[in-house]
Design goal:
CATH class of one domain: Mainly Beta
CATH topology of one domain: OB fold (Dihydrolipoamide Acetyltransferase, E2P)
Number of helices: 3
Strand order of the largest sheet: 1-2-3-5-4
Shape: globular
Helix content: 10-25%
Strand content: 25-35%
Structural class: alpha+beta
CATH superfamily of one domain: Nucleic acid-binding proteins
Number of strands: 6
CATH architecture of one domain: Beta Barrel
Largest sheet: 5 strands, mixed, barrel
Radius of gyration: 22 Å
Distance between the termini: 67 Å
């Protein structure tokens, strides 16, 4: 009986279709909190997919050459709740993205924190959590406690 059960389980596992797994990652696993950047350009492609959206924008670098950057954002559901819709990022839409470059600086890829539109609207679009910089732009981020004050000639006051 046990042997039959084990064979059934083994056969079932063999029948499970194997597919590549896209593991979800923490900010710190892929992006460099010490490499902030600002990209400005037009949207050339949009991937409105889980677990992260990807905005591709054409940016002109300091040398005047055009580069296409991939910018990671939060999940589509999260962005919708913040007021960002797929239609807001139609091809050709001019945007500014503040974010952080990937740890591999040879790649044209970044994690977007804020997106600013030509009309001045600014939306937090970045991921937060493990390794993400606490920069005050994440509306769900707890406030940073005030720095300790040191009186003249005294000990620190908390």
């Amino acid at each position: 009986m046990r042997r039959t059960f084990a064979l059934v389980i083994a056969a079932a596992l063999l029948l499970v279709p194997s597919a590549p797994l896209n593991a979800h990652h923490a900010f710190g696993a892929e992006f460099d909190p010490n490499a902030p950047l600002r990209l400005q350009g037009k949207v050339v492609k949009l991937e409105w997919v889980n677990p992260h959206t990807w905005i591709h924008l054409e940016h002109v670098n300091q040398a005047g050459a055009k580069e296409v950057w991939m910018v990671e954002g939060g999940t589509p559901n999260t962005l919708l709740r913040r007021g960002l819709k797929r239609e807001s990022l139609a091809y050709g839409t001019e945007i500014i993205v503040d974010g952080y470059q990937t740890k591999d600086h040879s790649l044209k890829r970044a994690n977007g924190r804020n997106i600013t539109f030509a009309d001045g609207r600014k939306i937090f679009m970045g991921s937060s959590g493990t390794g993400a910089p606490r920069d005050g732009r994440d509306p769900t981020e707890p406030p940073t406690p005030p720095a300790a004050k040191k009186p003249p000639g005294g000990a620190l006051i908390q």
